[in-house]
User: Fold these one by one.
Assistant:
Number 1:
Amino acid sequence: MTAPRIEIDLAAFRHNVATLSSLVAPSRTMLAVKANAYGHGLVPLAFAALESGADSLAVLEIPAALELRRAGITAPLFAWLHGPGADFAAAVDAGIDLGVSATWQVEAIAAAAHSVPARIHLKVDTGLHRNGANPEDWPALVDAALAAERAGRVEISALWSHLADASPEDDAAALTLFQESVAVAAARGCTPPLLHLAASSAGIRMPAARLGLVRFGIAAYGISPFDDETARDLGLRPVMSVRAPVAAVDGGVASLSIGSADGIPAPAAGRAQAWVAGSRHPIVEIGIDSLSLDVAGSTVAVGDEVVLFGSGDDGEPTAEEWADWADTIGDEIVARASERLPRVYRG
Amino acid sequence: MRRSALVDLAALEANLLSALEADPDLILDARADAYGHGVGPIIRTALATGVGTVRVSPGQSVLPGIRRSALMTVPSKRRLLGAEAYGVDGSGIPVLTLVGEVIAVKPVGADAGVSYGYTYRTPAPTTLALVALGYADGVPRLASNRASVAIGGEPLPLVGRIAMDQFVVDCGDRHPSVGDDAVLFGRNAPSALDWAAHTERSALDLTAGIGSRVERVYS
């Protein structure tokens, strides 16, 4: 009997990366592997992405980028969320591209770049209101970056932003604001070779936003970024499956040694289903480290393998369905998948 | 980014001592890595405080430096002490305090949409703080537009959709600085019970879900 585990279908992931990168070519594909590759495992997914159509990786923060460098990845890496304690010197030494939202970051990066200029991507806020310079602060950010570039401390490699996916109209307005910001930068003498804006949803549905590259994330993991089309509809295949053997059967109830602490969302109890022995069964209770399944009238036995979610090919639930049951999005289902359980890579 | 779960072992000890007074035979519930508090330090403190038996999840029954006879993995008729020990029962001292870092602060006008889907629009000109914790760290997305976060000791509303690695706080007329602490729950902060209610799970489910990017800091 195999223990609870998370299987990662690298063939499905490669298929998705190849499908998405072909869709947006000649725009290039940067694959987001932040948050431990959305729970799938950083290093194996990073290599698989680069083998199948991505030519750079987005990692969120410097420590993850350094981990990929230590694993032998030489492709461009992009890190864009930095606190004041960020180790910019290590990032510059490792050749990490840095997203920059504020002049304090330009100054700290310039001060850290002793050996070679730091490659920076300047971010403008086009409406999401997270990081990125406000449009009124954008000229000052561009000027600070240009000054650091003249001093040989940085190289401005790109201008970028991130969309809110609120509506096609809102995203079109954000694209317009981005283009205006690019023009503002150009008028000040800043014309880097690369512009990027789109992530999965705009990468698929908004060709005008693809620009130099698309930062694909969730779609590559086989989860739709849309609520009106599934991954299957988009020709994408789920990558993660969560599996556990039946540990006991008593009075028509099967119990499993996997629970909410493994990322199985407690709010889904009473709605969620799992798949075992060829059919779905309702999950009646989600405990902290256990879970019970109503298998009354079935032949389900101890040792049978239960799929909590997976590809859907044989009728198993998908992470997208779990997202509906837990009133969230598939991104949270996979990103929260147990850090305790082993990942088993196939394909 | 600083992401910290501050674990106050003296608070655990105080909670355990008052519970042991009522029932010296109780079992401490330390399943799921002591509900995210870290099974090693929690069990060592509990045994030193006079707890005789600790319940752990299967697979955590062999722990270095802890006598095996003190650990059990199956239910028992004795009282299982959970929420009260960790101070998330409404009366004990909270043992865990979840702290994120403010990494951007920006003024915005009225009617500014915030985060994915623009599910929140600022009712008036305000200051927004970006905090580097998200649902990948175990901050449930269900808390979007529901929970509060303490910045500078003041509870302030978490607004817009929580994303994988970050969320936004509407600071009104307060002006936090980059690098400030944002305390989600625990000491001098909103209660884990409030967060539990907002996220449709128990408070111990919430602490058990805190991810590995969050550093456990013991004191």
Number 2:
Amino acid sequence: MKEKSIRKILIANRGEIALRILRTIKELGKGAVVVYEKPDSEAYYIRLADTAILIGEGPRCDYLNIERIIWAARKSGADAVHPGYGFLAENADFSEACEKAGLIFIGPPAGVIRDLGNKVVARRIAAQAGIDTIPGTGDLPRGEDGVAAALKFGLEHGYPLMLKASSGGGGRGIRKVVNEKDLLVQLPMARQETLSAFNDENIYVEKCVEAPRHVEIQILADRHGQIIHLGSRDCSIQRRHQKLLEIAPANLPVDVLEAMYAAAIKAARQAGYINAGTVEFLVDARTNAFWFMEMNTRLQVEHTVTEELTGVDIVREQIRVAEGQVLDIPRERVHLMGKAVQVRVNAEDPKNHFMPEGGKQVEVYQSPGGPGVRLDGVVYQGYRVPTEYDSLMVKMTIRGYNWEQTIQRLKQALNGFLIVGPATTVPFYLAICDEPDFLAERFDTGYLDAHPAVFQYAEQEREVAKLARLIAEIHARKINPFAY
Amino acid sequence: MTRRTQNNDARITPQELRRNGVRQVLEKIRRAGGYYVTNTERDLSQSDFKNRIMPHTQFLVAPQRNDAGFFSIEITGGASVHVDMLRKQMNPLEKLEVLSANMPDTLFQTLCRGVNLFGYRPYPENVIRLTVRSFARYVHVWRVFDFLNHVSNMIPVFEEVRESGAILEPSICFSTGPEHTDAYYVGKVGEILAVTGEDILLCIKNHGGLGTPKRIGALVRAIRERYPDLVIHYHGHNTDGADLGRIVAAVKNGAKIVDASDHAMTGFYGPPPLLTAVDILSDEGYEAAGLNRQAVIDASNILRGEREHYRDFESQFLGFDPTAQIHKLPGGATGSSFEQAVKGGFLHQMPNILQNELPRVHVELGNWWSVTPGSQILWTTAVNNVLKGARYRDANDDLKSLMLGRYGEFPFYRPSDSIYEAVFGKNWKAILEHEGGYQRIEDVDLAVERKVLEHRIGRAATDDELVLYLQHPNDAVDFFKFEAKYGKTWVLSPNIWFRKGGFGLGDKFEIPDAYGRLHAVEIGPKRRTKAGDAVTYLVIDHHPEPILTELEGEGVPAKKKISFTPKEIEALAKTGDVRSQIIGTVSEIPISEGEEVSAGQILIVLEAMKMLNNVIAEINGRVAEILVAPGDRVEVGDPLIVVRTE
């Protein structure tokens, strides 16, 4: 295949990932175009782009509007599109539309996205590649036949089971059922839910592995048949199937990891994969047995831990692959020594079901620094937490030589944040940093349920903030009412 | 640097007390050639600065005072425990903890009012014992008194002090008049010794600065003649300007410890200048044991600069007051009396109250000792008599309790029948017979008290917080809430704490917080937000932060203050519109809405100036509305209750 140099890339995304991609584009000396909806017009990252194009009032609908984005690419003269994660990142129609418009889509071909985006198809691909998948059904037939099929599966494999939306992803469209009765109640609800969420009512049943670990392998594939892996990530610490804290590499025996690398590469090859992708596995926390779960055809939020661990700029490789270049990452650059951890500093209140603090103003923002600290964020002093989008303010990725040192650095860095205004997840992460199982690097997807104490952190207001409150009172009232 | 520590071996430290025990320390005092000096900073603050000398100032001068080699420094007790929480917003026990870390070589002294502890009314015995144990962690010398000189009222405190290993200093309160003879006081000392044994210091507590030097000299001599080994600690006030003379007379006649304080802070109602006493006595051949003269001077050099911050709290009547010999008001109550006179608008009546009515009431009620809580009873009664124009009308509960003998027998004579009648009405004899007699306060259930406290502050309480709550429940809860909101503000200098009129734009303060971290706070502009809130910008550690503050100033209608005269309030009460006659705190509401009440019934109990005051129904009717709740502060004229006649 012919190489085609990209000159100008449109970033079809917003927030921290738009900035992340933009930084690499600039580093490569290429042009960067951002698109934005009206509510994002105050975002500072759009000022760093060569061109910023307003694509609509939003919220969200214009970032999902393929036509508008293609229009913006044409208008700006971009010759490639990077979709980031979320929004249109795993939308095969978008990939297709880009190709049709003569734009290079920085990601896998539309067919691959379509195949892997359907979980039933993805499981079949994995099975064809000889990789264990969690026992499960195909798409359930509609009506009573579907119910019967699900009940039969339950009888054969035992409960609990998982009901999953075939088009689901990102933790959405998943329900756990504990017995037959529960299944009969939840099945119609799950179907209804998946129809409204994904516009596709197909669901399937899977055996539920209780409190598994969630481990994924980052892979890179070029158009010349080369597929490499960049090691593993442990994303077990989740709340309601949403990842909170990711670690690279996973704490697993070398032979298990090697087997997972091989499986991931095989799966990618079977799928005809090109560009960066992630193969997700469930790992039995006791036996280390693992099963293919799904493959994500996009850049992941947590790609930073892999980057910090390996020194590879994944976005740069994505662009090079999209240009048709040959992967030329020497083995010695892919070192998997040390540890990297990423935490998502969200404007959310962990004590109140992680309720987003939308609409609040960040009155003070001070960020940490020092060795091994990387920040990818869009927050600044005066930043308003959007009500229209997610509440991620900044991702912090910490790199250390080993687990202990990394956690010490993480604690110190978390303490270096000073965010006044919204509640954040920072004190919650600090509580985790002191929890013995976490310190011993022992966790699975049941971690937060098993450790409710990490939510019991004390609300620590800075002493100087309290003193300042009184000084402000004395100043405003012109007398100290507590002294006279 | 001339006369650096003259006699360092003579100094007594907490380490030594711990090592050798009370008996050996007392023996060392007896054997010492000269005499010792106590710095009564607590009394100085209470008498001359309305109790407002801030912890910041105490910490500032702690190294010099620690070097000074005082026998002890009186730094807690009296009204200070209450005021620490009420007006300084500092935990009184934390104050002692931090101060003792800064003054490790100096004995801390307290003034404890026997059954009344650091308050104004008797406490249950289990509260007394818990409180003494708690404070004894930091306090080495316990001066204990009873305002009627009843030894039995001090016994639980005595026992707990001895148990803790601290030095016990029982007091005989001193006054003047025909009943106050040497024989009487020597007899009192005998009563005390019979209870305590000989290992005590004895305090002659001259809280009013009464008597001449000659009188004090004679009293010391009389006690020494009967009890030659007893170590006498003379405590006086300089209200009439003659306390230096009394100190010299006391030492010449054998007192071993005397009270005075830092010369840069001395005023008119508290202790006299310490160094002056030391220099006079030196010329007389008596040396201050363990004293570092230069350190005393250094301390005052620092304090002189601080004094300007406290100008607002010095007396409204400057100058010495030889008429103290007439009104006998204790120095420690003078400041608060003036404060009350200013707030109540009767400052101009003070000469009349002090020189005519108060001495008259004092004699009528039994010529016992005008010291807390007796001084408040005398003072409140005299003020009432003058302001109401009718004597002994609407007597407060504490006067009634006293006249019913609940605090103990009258030491010399009881008030006349006509006063009993004025206070209790025609039926006074039956009331006296029925309700009279010593009142023992029942123990409280400490677990229940803790639960109530924890409910009020919405979290678990520490043991220290429980102790403070048991002293002054409402003010302690207010303080705990303050601390949760504003932090440990005792780090703030008086320049910030007492600032009036706001700060200047760009004013910058370096503030070390209570945990040792240094901060910089700079005053920025004031603005109004879009929502209409007032916002002050402070640059905190180099980052501007907006802080919401109370609305004030233009545009916002200030709460309109209507002022009523006492006559108007009385007239309104007759229509059922019951309003407060005083500034105080609602202590109790014994009635409820909808209840039938009759004229003369108690509607509300208000606490003011540490006294309970009943608000009485003037008419028969039904309680239509109760507008206040226990713990609320009320001003003169604030509506309390509405009574409707059907």
